[in-house]
Specification:
Layout lengths: L2 E4 L5 H9 L3 E4 L5 H7 L5 E4 L7 H6 L5 E4 L9 H6 L3 E3 L6 H17 L1 H9 L17 E5 L3 H12 L3 E5 L5 H7 L2 E2 L2 H7 L2 E4 L13 H5 L5 E5 L8 H10 L2 E6 L18 E3 L8 H21 L13 H24 L6 E8 L6 H13 L11 H7 L3 E7 L7 E8 L4 E8 L5 E6 L2 E6 L3 E8 L4 H11 L3 E9 L5 E9 L4 H8 L4 E8 L1
Parallel strand pairs: 1-2, 1-3, 3-4, 4-5, 6-7, 6-9, 7-8, 9-10, 10-11, 11-12, 13-14
Antiparallel strand pairs: 13-15, 15-16, 16-17, 17-18, 19-21, 19-22, 20-21
C-alpha cells in the first residue's frame, strides 16, 4: 500500500480521498526541518502547500519518494531540478484558485472605485466624512487587462457583466478568442492610453518584469486606477508611488509585492493605496478545491501511474518512456526554438510528424512542443497544462502524419502561424540520441541545440561570415559550432552559431547593424 505524508494543513476531505482509494496517509503539519528529514524516507508521496520546503537535502533523505503534490500553483518551495534528478515527479494544481483570484481582483477594483477601506476606517473613527469619499462608477468605464489567460478571462467576464468596456493586451490572445470573450485585443500603449482601470494577470518573466515601468505609467490615462493580484515585480513600485504622489494615478490596489512577506513597504500607509496580504487564492472554496485536486492527482499516480499537472514529467506510460524520451526532448526544443523567435501573437500551430516518429504517442510529443513554444513567455506552462493554456489564448493546434518523404527516417516540423507570417522549423533525432535542427523556414542546415545559440538571418553576401566572426571575437565570445544554410547564392541565409556563454547586448546590437542582417537573436535551451 502506498504511503503519503501530508505536511501542511489540508482539508479533511482530501485526507479521506487518500483513505478511500487505499493509500495510507499520515497528517503531520508543522514539522521542523529536522523532523521532516527524519521521517520523509518512509513515504512514497508528499502533499504540501507553501510552508513545507522541499529542498535538495529533503529530497536526498526521501529515499522512497515518488511524487510531491503542491496544493496550489506556486512551486517556489520545491527544488525542481533536484526532484527531477532524483526521479521525483512534482505536481501542482494550476487552475483550482482561478475564480477566487479573479474575484479578488474585482473586489479590489470596487474598493478603489469607492475608496471603501479609507471610508470604513473613517466611519469607524466616528468622523462621518461623506463629502471626502467621492467615488467613481464602474459602469461605462474601460478596464485594461494585461494578460488574458485563465484568470484574466474570468475577470473580463465579470467586468462585462458590470457593463464595463474591456480591452486586453496579451501576445498569446488571438483575435478569435478575444471576440469570443467580448474583449478588444490591443497593444500595450493603446491600453495604457485608454484604460480607466488596469489589472494585471500575467506571470513573472524577463519580458513582463516591470511591464508597468515608469515609462509605461507615464503613458497611462490621468486618474487611472491600478490593481495587481498576479505577481510582485510587474509594477515599478517606485514609479507607482511617484504617480500616486503627483495625482496622475488615482489609486492602486496591491495583493502582491516584490518581496513577501511584506512587513514594511514605501506604499504602506499611502492614502491612495489598498493593500492585502496575497489573498488572491484565500477562500475556503479555493483551498478546498486545490486540496482535493492534489489528493486525487497523487493517488492516481501512486495507484495507476497516471500523471496530471506535472511540472517535470510528460504524460506517458513507463513502457513508452525509453523510446519517447529523445523525441520528447526534440519536440520541446523545436517548440522553444519557434517560441523564442516569435514576438507576436500566435494563431495556430501545426506539428507535422514524418516517418517512424508518426507511429509514437503524438499527444505527449505535441504537449512537449506546445509547452516549449509557450514557456519562454509563460514559465508556469508544463507539458500537461500547455494545451489548456493554448486553448485559452485561442491558439489552434493541429497534428499531421506523413510517410517518410526525404533523407531522414523521422522528422518533426513545427509550423507556427501568426497574423504576419508562417514559420517552419524541422528537427530529427540521430542514432546516438542527439536532437538536431535540419531545416528552418525551408532552408536546409544541420545544427545542434545548445545552451547558448546565436540565430542570424541574413542576405548571403561575401564577407558576412568574417564580419560576424570578428564581432564575436572582439567580444571574446568563443564559437563552439557554426551551422550555415541558404536558399541560393545571394539569397536568404541562416547561421546557427553555438557560443560558449552569452552574447553581450552591445555585440548583438552590432551584429544586427551589419548591412546584410535581417534578424539576430540569442536563444537558450
Amino acid at each position: 500500500m502506498p504511503k503519503v505524508l501530508i505536511s501542511d494543513a489540508l482539508s479533511p476531505a482530501a485526507v479521506q480521498i487518500f483513505k478511500d482509494r487505499g493509500v495510507e496517509v499520515d497528517v503531520k503539519p508543522g514539522l521542523s526541518k529536522d523532523e521532516l528529514l527524519a521521517v520523509i524516507g518512509e513515504y512514497d508521496g508528499l502533499a504540501i502547500r507553501s510552508n513545507t520546503k522541499v529542498t535538495a537535502e529533503v529530497l536526498k533523505a526521501a529515499t522512497n519518494l515518488k511524487v510531491v503534490g503542491r496544493a496550489g500553483i506556486g512551486v517556489d518551495n520545491v527544488d525542481i531540478p533536484a526532484a527531477t534528478a532524483r526521479g521525483v515527479i512534482v505536481m501542482n494544481t494550476p487552475f483550482g484558485n482561478s475564480i477566487t483570484t479573479a474575484e479578488h481582483a474585482i473586489a479590489l477594483i470596487f474598493a478603489l472605485a469607492r475608496d471603501v477601506p479609507a471610508a470604513n476606517a473613517s466611519t469607524h473613527a466616528g468622523k462621518w466624512e461623506k463629502n471626502r469619499f467621492m467615488g467613481v462608477e464602474l459602469y461605462g468605464k474601460t478596464l485594461g487587462l494585461i494578460g488574458c489567460g485563465n484568470i484574466g478571462s474570468i475577470v473580463a467576464d465579470r467586468a462585462l457583466g458590470l457593463k464595463m468596456k474591456v480591452v486586453a493586451f496579451d501576445p498569446f490572445l488571438s483575435l478569435e478568442r478575444a471576440q469570443e470573450l467580448g474583449v478588444e485585443k490591443v497593444e500595450l500603449d493603446d491600453l495604457l492610453a485608454r484604460a480607466d482601470f488596469i489589472t494585471l494577470h500575467t506571470p513573472m518573466t524577463p519580458q513582463t518584469r516591470n511591464i508597468l515601468s515608469a515609462e509605461a505609467l507615464a503613458k497611462t490615462k490621468p486618474g487611472v486606477r491600478i490593481v495587481n493580484c498576479a505577481r510582485g515585480g510587474l509594477i515599478d513600485e517606485v514609479a507607482l508611488k511617484a504617480g500616486l504622489d503627483s495625482g496622475h494615478i488615482a489609486g492602486a490596489a496591491l495583493d502582491v509585492f516584490e518581496t513577501e512577506p511584506a512587513k514594511a513597504h514605501p506604499l504602506f500607509g499611502h492614502e491612495k493605496v489598498v493593500a492585502t496580504p496575497h489573498l488572491g487564492a484565500s477562500t475556503n472554496e479555493a483551498q478546498e478545491n486545490v486540496a482535493l485536486q492534489v489528493a486525487e492527482q497523487i493517488s492516481d499516480y501512486l495507484l495507476t501511474g497516471a500523471v496530471t499537472n506535472a511540472i517535470n514529467m510528460p504524460s506517458i506510460s513507463a513502457a513508452d518512456a525509453a523510446v519517447m524520451k529523445p523525441w520528447i526532448d526534440l519536440a520541446g526544443k523545436l517548440g522553444a526554438f519557434a517560441g523564442q523567435l516569435t514576438e507576436t501573437s500566435i494563431t495556430g500551430v501545426e506539428i507535422i510528424y514524418e516517418g517512424a516518429v508518426a507511429k509514437l504517442n503524438l499527444r505527449a510529443l505535441t504537449q512537449a512542443t506546445i509547452a516549449g513554444l509557450l514557456k519562454p513567455a509563460l514559465p508556469d506552462v508544463n507539458m500537461v497544462n500547455a494545451p489548456v493554456v493554448a486553448k485559452e489564448r485561442g491558439i489552434v493546434i493541429t497534428e499531421s502524419r506523413r510517410e517518410q518523404l526525404g533523407t531522414y527516417e523521422s522528422l518533426i516540423t513545427v509550423r507556427v502561424t501568426t497574423p504576419e507570417f508562417t514559420r517552419d522549423v524541422t528537427g530529427t533525432v540521430f542514432a546516438n540520441g542527439d536532437a538536431r535542427i535540419v531545416d528552418v523556414k525551408g532552408i536546409r542546415l544541420e545544427g545542434a541545440f545548445a545552451p547558448h545559440l546565436l540565430y542570424v538571418t541574413n542576405e548571403d553576401k561575401p564577407g558576412f561570415i568574417g564580419r560576424l566572426g570578428t564581432l564575436l571575437g572582439e567580444a571574446k565570445v568563443n564559437i563552439a559550432n557554426f551551422a550555415l544554410g541558404r536558399v541560393s547564392a545571394g539569397q536568404d541565409a541562416i547561421a546557427l552559431v553555438e557560443v560558449d556563454g552569452g552574447v553581450p547586448d552591445a555585440t548583438l546590437a552590432a551584429i544586427r547593424a551589419l548591412p546584410a542582417v535581417k534578424q539576430a537573436k540569442v536563444l537558450a535551451f
